[in-house]
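Structure ticket #2291
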Amino acid sequence: MSNNHYKVFFTISFLYRIDSKKKISKSFKSDLDINDTLLNNSLDDNNVHKRWKEYALKTSLDKLNPTSDFNNDRVSEKKIVTHRIVNLMNLTEVHET
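Resolution: structure written out below.
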């Protein structure tokens, strides 16, 4: 695996079930350092956007650095907006191709 490290700035929004009849929309902005080990995949500037989105949508919210605790069993319809991904090895922004 390569040794690339990235910082991702993103917003995630989702529906959160309060009880059987009530859901509310929630979101939070955050940033996260990602690398090959965290995503369990080889990362480079060409695939980091795709791999990040796959990871963010399937992982639990507590691993995405939220400001509050959420019960992941109550979360549905997650949507991710990636604002910026920076390659920390050479300090350049990686644009989606």
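Closing remark: The chain has two helices and four strands.
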